[in-house]
Design brief:
heterodimer, A: about 750 residues, alpha/beta, six-stranded mixed β-sheet, 22 helices, about 40% helix, B: about 190 residues, mainly alpha, 9 helices, globular
């Protein structure tokens, strides 16, 4: 053995990892070679030092306990799928003879059958068909209102099924003055059959039946003026789908909506339909859109299925927006006024603790270039620190730390004072923003939501945007969200202490960095393509349309003044198509818009839609317009159609539908039809359970777990109703008008 | 609470009980292996709080994947596999940060009777060694830590990191050479 060889072996020699023969040869060489011996000694010293250093450390206190808490949370999250199996007891093989196993006149109740469709939509052959039957319903009232389940097997591979929806039942005697009119309204469930396609989504078989288009953020005109419950007023009439109208914007920065729903459910609170923003669900998923480099935005459009059977079928049209990725390296100076709610109500549920932590985080993130005013409000409004450069962070932190809850809440006064502070030193080249941190329950001064929105709107015109950060279970989301919407800012929600950090991290990434403004999206459906649904949005009224168009013009002008981008929206020719105006779009962000459409019968291929996007590119300072055409191919093979489903689109659609299930459940709870609400959740859980398992998808798993958690909340209401007749009445009111009342 | 007998029994029956739905039994395994897993994570990333999170996450992942754990492997190397993957992806996300100067709760071996000067000198020296290890590229650092933390054999390291034994040997040798150079530089 020579020296070069020997040196190679020294390391394993010290570890005792040489085989006997090599070891002996190495030792022979070492005995005769001084230089290699010295090498060995040096190496041995290093090994000894490392051995001394890399020792086991004591684990932090409470390690096992904290770990086990996470373990059982994980076990529970996984458990929700096992739970499904307990609910859905019958598992059938391939020789499915549905009509035979529906026992005529039996007391057994049949519920929900979704899995068959789900398995096929996953683009695979049905391997394992199981049918869900729920036998343990206790309410006979609910039982008798259900018609039996029917099921087809059309071609052996794709199973269709029809599910009879429950006939509206008589209100239980303990619901005083329950209106029957409401249940007959199109918003309620009528007895019309809903057909479950392999897509798993109910499609309407007759106009007005099934699930109507779900309203998005309530536009101002439709919003109840105040939170005065009056159980007799009818819901607003549904606005018909319009292939050529303006629709409400569904894009909103921040994760507030979803975080809030999670918090409500975790707190055991009934979620009202209004609190559920459909777009918040797919918003949480990572989207795989191409990231633009030479433009601020990238536009993508596709159908869920790229192939459609020749007799025609419904599918989904997805439009994706993806903003350019940029690091927030050169953030312009910020001029911020923070309005911090220190009223008595903030003393509950640790709300003030979270709010203070969040405020402290905000101060941390600012630099001396930035300005910050601190306004504290309760029954009185106090400008604790007038606007000034953030040179003395200690002072801000000191004031924040010393805050204690006071009495009433003059939210309007607090917000106004913050605007005034921010307006004192408008940063021409920077960002001017008011941040409202509150539980949104005005108990003193102005409490009219419309007035709040007007206030926010007024200051947007002066160049001050508003972001709201909500906290607590019991708060007025309509107000907080409305202010953020009107104030062109973000809406966040402090779920717990860990979210305080994330909120401002996100806020800072985004608020300084809108990369596009005045987005005008136009979806022109091709001839023969029928519009069935726009997820999370609805056609705007003439008045609302005028407002969003005025907004567009104003932004157009402002961007010209600021960046010199030529105005091109001052005279807007009306063009056909579904139009959405998005005031601004943030960097690193993405957004999904989805429609359900019906493609008629045909051959060859067919155009589904032209998608146009016009926007002001703030990164490259120019007007942009993009166009994407979407078409589908016809096929004679149903299986081929099912297999052409694009997973990313299906997943987003399932996200929207998770939101829809919550809204649907809210409707049933409003009608005090708890079993139907539970069933709605169960059905969705089955779909999500199968998809999450099949794709090993954590997002969908989380959504399913959320519904499972909610189901236990809803199921728990039953007993409470029985023991407290007034509760039902109370619940109806609270769900309809405020939706947050029924706390544990 | 798990019984005394459980805390003395080998891993396999405990794993079986976890799989049978007795989640609490898992706490025995957490207690048993939290030391090496936490230490490993800490040595890998050099941040006590993050290491705590990653170590906890290691156990959570292990619990979730328990069904896929095959009993012809040993449990701890399997945990190390999970921990190593978590640390690697954490390091990919986070910029490599310098090691904090004073290490928390990390001087268990101050020899009794040694003079304060001697103690201070040896502490400083340990700090230099730590720094040198921390500066190694991840793929070398992970092997050094596995080898020295638990005296794992090359075979076990190879299984843990899914690398050929020859690669393990080679990297360990290279890593030690790098450390030697770094420390000699430090001394001179």
């Amino acid at each position: 053995m020579n020296c070069a060889n020997c040196i190679r072996y020294l390391s394993p020699y010290l570890d005792g990892e040489l085989d006997r023969e090599t070891r002996e040869r190495a030792e022979d060489h070492l005995r005769s070679c001084q230089s290699c011996q010295r090498e060995l000694e040096k190496l041995a010293r290093v090994v000894a030092q490392v051995d001394e250093t890399v020792v086991e450390l004591p684990t932090p206190a409470g390690f096992t306990q904290a770990t086990m808490a996470k373990v059982s949370a994980a076990a529970q999250a996984r458990g929700w799928r096992q739970q499904l199996r307990e609910v859905f007891v019958v598992k059938l093989g391939e020789s499915l003879k549905p009509r035979n196993w529906v026992p005529a006149g039996s007391t057994v109740i049949l519920v929900a059958l979704v899995v068959v469709g789900t398995l096929t939509v996953l683009g695979r052959k049905v391997r394992n068909t199981f049918v869900s039957v729920n036998t343990n319903m206790t309410s006979t009232e609910a039982e008798s209102s259900l018609s039996p389940l029917e099921l087809y097997d059309e071609d052996g591979t794709t199973l269709y099924l029809e599910k009879a929806m429950p006939v509206p039942q008589k209100a239980p005697p303990w619901v005083a003055g329950a209106p029957t009119k409401r249940q007959a309204a199109p918003g309620g469930m009528s007895g019309a059959p809903v057909r479950l396609t392999p897509g798993g989504a109910p499609t309407q078989t007759s106009p007005g039946a099934g699930m109507p288009a779900v309203p998005g953020p309530a536009p101002p005109a439709l919003m109840p003026k105040t939170a005065k419950p009056s159980p007799t007023s009818a819901p607003p009439p549904p606005i018909p789908l319009d292939k050529n109208g303006y629709y409400g914007n569904t894009y909103m920065g921040g994760q507030g909506s979803r975080d809030r729903v999670e918090k409500l459910i975790a707190s055991g609170v009934v979620v009202s339909g209004k609190q559920v923003k459909l777009a918040a669900f797919p918003r949480r998923y990572g989207q795989a859109f191409r990231i633009p480099r030479r433009t601020a935005l990238n536009l993508e459009a596709t159908t869920e299925r790229t192939k459609i059977v020749s007799e025609g079928d419904s599918t989904y049209l997805q439009v994706g927006l993806q903003a350019i990725k940029r690091e927030g390296a050169r953030r312009p100076p910020l001029n911020i006024a923070l309005a911090l709610d220190v009223s008595g109500s903030m003393g509950d549920e640790n709300k003030l603790v979270y709010a203070k932590a969040a405020a402290a985080r905000l101060v941390d993130r600012l630099s001396p270039r930035d300005r910050l005013a601190l306004v504290l409000f309760e029954s009185t409004v106090k400008v604790a620190i007038p606007t000034q450069g953030v040179t003395d962070k200690q002072r801000y932190q000191g004031v924040i730390a010393a805050v204690t809850p006071g009495s009433n809440t003059d939210l309007y006064g607090g917000l106004s004072a913050a605007y005034q502070e921010a307006a004192k030193h408008l940063a021409g080249d920077g960002i001017n923003q008011v941040i409202l941190l509150s539980d949104g329950l005005p108990t003193a001064g102005v409490s009219d939501v419309v007035a709040f929105r007007k206030l926010a709107e007024k200051y947007v015109e002066k160049g001050i945007t508003t972001t709201t950060v909500g906290v607590g279970v019991d708060f007025n989301e309509e107000l907080m969200m409305g202010v953020a919407e009107e104030g062109k800012g973000n809406y966040h929600f402090l779920k717990d202490s860990s979210s305080t950090d994330r909120v401002f991290q996100q806020e800072f990434q985004e608020m300084a960095n809108a990369v596009a403004k005045a987005l005008r999206l136009r979806l022109r459906l091709a001839d023969g393509i029928e519009l069935l649904k726009v997820f999370g949005s609805q056609a705007l009224s003439a008045q609302q349309t005028a407002k969003v168009k005025a907004d567009e013009k104003r932004i157009d002008k402002k961007v010209f003044e600021d960046l010199g981008i030529v105005p091109d929206r001052q005279k807007q020719k009306e063009e056909p198509g579904i139009k959405m105006l998005i005031p601004h779009f943030y960097q690193n962000d993405s957004h999904v818009i989805m429609l359900q459409v019906r493609v008629p019968k045909g051959r060859g291929s067919r155009k589904v839609a032209d998608v146009y996007l016009k926007y002001k590119d703030l990164v490259f300072a120019k007007n942009r317009s993009e166009h994407v055409a979407v078409s589908v191919d016809y096929t004679s093979d149903k299986t081929e159609m099912v297999r052409s489903a694009q997973r990313a689109v299906v997943k987003n659609r399932l996200g929207f539908e998770t939101g829809e299930a919550l809204i649907q459940a809210a409707r049933f709870i409003e009608q005090t039809n708890l079993s139907a609400a539970v069933r709605t959740l169960d059905e969705r859980m089955v779909v999500l359970g199968v998809a999450a398992k099949e794709w090993n998808d954590r997002d969908l798993d989380r959504d399913g777990a959320l519904l499972a958690q909610y189901k236990t909340v809803v199921a728990g209401l039953d007993q409470r109703f029985a023991s407290n007749p007034e509760l039902g009445q109370y619940l109806r009111k609270s769900l309809t008008y405020s939706g947050y009342e029924l706390t544990r | 609470m798990p019984s005394q007998s459980l805390s003395l029994s080998p891993d396999e029956p405990i794993i079986a009980r976890c799989l049978a739905g007795e989640a609490e039994a898992f706490s025995v395994l957490v207690d048993r292996y939290r030391g090496p897993i936490y230490s490993f994570a800490y040595r890998m990333i050099g941040d006590a709080e993050e290491a705590n999170d990653l170590a906890q996450e290691t156990f959570v992942r292990a619990y979730r994947a328990l069904k896929r754990f095959s009993t012809d492997r040993k449990f701890l190397p399997w945990l190390f596999t999970i921990a190593a993957n978590l640390c690697k992806s954490w390091l990919r996300r986070a910029p490599h940060q310098p090691l904090p100067l004073e290490e928390i709760a990390d001087c268990p071996e101050a020899a009794e009777g040694s003079s304060p000067e001697h103690e201070a000198a040896s502490r400083l020296y340990r700090q230099q060694v730590r720094q040198a290890i921390h500066s190694l590229p991840t793929r070398y650092r992970v092997i050094i830590i596995l080898r020295h933390l638990r005296d794992m054999s090359y075979e076990e390291i190879s299984e843990t990191l899914q690398l050929p034994v020859s690669t393990v040997e080679h990297r360990l040798r290279t890593a030690r050479e790098m450390l030697r150079e770094a420390l000699e530089e430090e001394v001179s």
